[in-house]
Amino acid sequence: MRELGIFLFFAGLLAILAPYLLPANFRFPLLDWIYNWGPTVAWAIKGGITALGLILWLSFKNRN
Q: For this UniProt entry, which segments traverse the membrane (predicted)?
């Protein structure tokens, strides 16, 4: 679960930071579906994925 949390956290961070770091006309095909419901829901999905990843990462941090 720790590895899944790390993956979700960094995938969420990448989704949040990509519009600011990449050219304006670049689009991630896998992330286009979240913009169908508008920017507010897209931010909620990206933030939720990042938060879930952080929770999983930290909750399983000290377990082997």
A: 33-58
CA–CA distances in Å: residue 21 to residues 9, 12, 13: 18, 14, 12
Query: What pLDDT sits at residue 55?
Result: 94
For residues 49 and 11, the answer to whether their CB atoms sit within 8 Å is yes
Taking phi first (over 0 means left), then psi (-120 to 50 degrees means alpha), and beta for anything else, what does residue 63 get? beta
**Strands in 5-44 per DSSP E:** none
Give the count of alpha carbons within 13 A of 63, CB side only: 8
CB 9 within 8 A of CB 16: no
- At 60, is the pLDDT very low, low, confident or very high (cuts 50, 70, 90)? confident
Choose among 45, 47, 52: nearest CA to 31: 45
